[in-house]
């Protein structure tokens, strides 16, 4: 019997698990420092290296930070939660288990709203739990040059929160948007640096595909080892394609953990997926249940800073800028600060926004820089905008000034002075230039005077070229019209 071939459209279903390092000064269960990049094994003690007889004590600040995140993502904070041991062997885990939370996480049932195709989409947060980080293994470059692997326990016991999203994400782009929003919230709260390269913000992805319209979920794989937003998106794209092609061949996707290989741009099988029961979770007998008083939660709630969504609302209200602008400008705390500084010094929000969304972001994106590394300060930008407004420079020259400011970090007044870019407002000088242009093109002047009005633009262009873009365009228009009419 012949099988009817219908092309099925597949949709991806993605859920993300993010590990974020909390910015406490000391570790989660001992007093060791959490400073990044110190000499290996200098920030350790009997507790975080799992010596017999040592006992963990939970860090109050770490709990406070985790509650902050729970509140900021509209989660319910559990009055009681429980630390549990997750048992597994690995050389970077000296105790042979990781202290985490299992059945009773600290926060549950929240959401984050992400701006997707011009609309806010709600992505569920299933749970947020606290746990300790493991150490770090350092492998030799090659087995020949360095036949050993080393272990650094400085990171062991650094506090983490794990944030588990619902399977609500439908594209790699959306996954990236969710991650950027989550990172932004952590940064607004000042509880995590969000630095992916240093590993303080790490993401694993669960991904499956299913025929569009089907409710049941397909078999999923878990992706690991993606250390930038771009890699998360690329890995998901690859994995979705891989799974679709398996299903199109009428084969089955295997549930497993796969590693993203950034060099080859592919995901490779790492191990069969372990189940929760493989870890033999049980409540940690060394730690009492974590009890969080309602009054403490309220105190923390009151102390929350303005978060991205609230800031966006305020920007829309106070500055009357388009929603798209407000979304981008509040996407990081530093960007919002830059904008507000700019507007404070040059109170025309839409103009400041236009320059930030245009020139500024273009330069930053090209150099893969964050706004806190931007050589143009809000003061310099405002100063330049004032120069346009006063007529000292033309809008066209301003783009060159901006580029120069970005390249050198110099003040715009200085650049304009050094380069001699001051706008020509001298009517006599403009008239003389117009005269020269007309003398060079007598035929065209005649044509214009006979009614070929489209030529006007050509003359404007010539005058601007002659003055190297420095003539005031408004004056050029006025004077040119007068002169051409004879
Ligand atoms: Zn320690």
Describe this structure in words.
- The chain is of the alpha+beta class and 486 residues long.
- 39% of the residues lie in helices and 20% in strands.
- It has 15 helices and 16 strands.
- It has helices at 60-72, 172-188, 229-248, 294-302, 308-319, 323-329, 333-345, 349-367, 378-390, 395-408, 412-419, 427-440, 442-449, 456-466, 473-484, and strands at 10-21, 76-77, 80-81, 83-87, 97-101, 107-116, 119-132, 136-139, 149-152, 159-165, 201-211, 221-226, 256-261, 266-272, 282-283, 290-291.
- The strands form four sheets. The chain has a nine-stranded mixed sheet. It has a three-stranded antiparallel sheet with strand order 5-4-15, with no helix packed on it.
- α12 crosses α14 (456-466) and α12 (427-440) crosses α15.
- It is elongated and about 100 Å long.
- The mean pLDDT is 92.
- The chain binds zinc ion.
Content-based structural category? alpha+beta
Major β-sheet annotation: 9 strands, mixed
From the alpha-carbon coordinates, what is the Rg to the nearest angstrom? 30 Å
Strand content: 15-25%
Small-molecule binders here are: zinc ion
Strand order of the largest sheet: 2-6-7-10-1-11-12-13-14
What is the β-strand count? 16
Let me know the average pLDDT: 92
Gross geometry: elongated
Distance between the termini: 88 Å
Helix content: 25-40%
With helices defined by DSSP (H or I, 4 residues minimum), what is the helix count?
15
The stretches of 5 or more residues where confidence is low (pLDDT under 50) are none
